[in-house]
Amino acid sequence: MSEIAMAVKQAPPEKMMFQLTLRRRGISDQAVLRTMEEIPREVFVEERDRADAYCDSALGIACGQTISQPFVVAYMTEQLHLQKQHRVLEIGTGSGYQAAILSRLAGQVLTIERFRTLADTARVRLERLGCDNVEVVLGDGFDIPPGVNQFDRIVVTAAMEQIPESLVERLETRRNPDRAGRAAPRHPDPHQARQDRRRGRTKGARGRAFCAGASGCCARTLKLRIRYPESCGLAVRPRPYSEG
After folding, report:
1. Catalytic one of 2, 28, 57, 68
2. pTM summary value
3. 166 is known as an active-site residue
């Protein structure tokens, strides 16, 4: 029996509470919720932390990194509005959990990790879970391997002082405006994000400089001075380390 089948069969109370927590915190996309339920998070955490796999908190993994809290993964994924034909680039594989979620909602996922231990472990996990549309690459997330095509969405799970133009140029929307994407930076307060959308706060100023185009969300903790158009498909998490 596969690891996913075993997880679904067991359906522990913690996993049901896990789903309720996501809904209560505002996650409403049914495809995202289904995927979060299907992908066994316990496979991606350290053995010592498996009892806490479905708690809404980040947990430590190898190389001094963490696996993101479930709400952050769900929120960023939801804001990307993924479709089956989308090609997604993830910067910062970490445990591989975010890549596994993306694999169920997009057509292809290329995920880049700078730590060999994390890259190798994530690759094995993803293969065991049947995530055949995910490629794990060891390298610098801002030095994309040659020969790689454009992407419809880019997820950055590490902090940065400014968005490299070379990364933005990887977005398909720069070449084909008809395939407009959506930005989905992590908002530190989702409730404030909804208020910002209602009030039309989409101007890029200090502390609120990376705007999420049509969605109106913004990463207020990032001190970026670059404002991107509504067609931008970048999703940035303001974290000082890799979190997959």
Report:
1. 68
2. 0.73
3. no
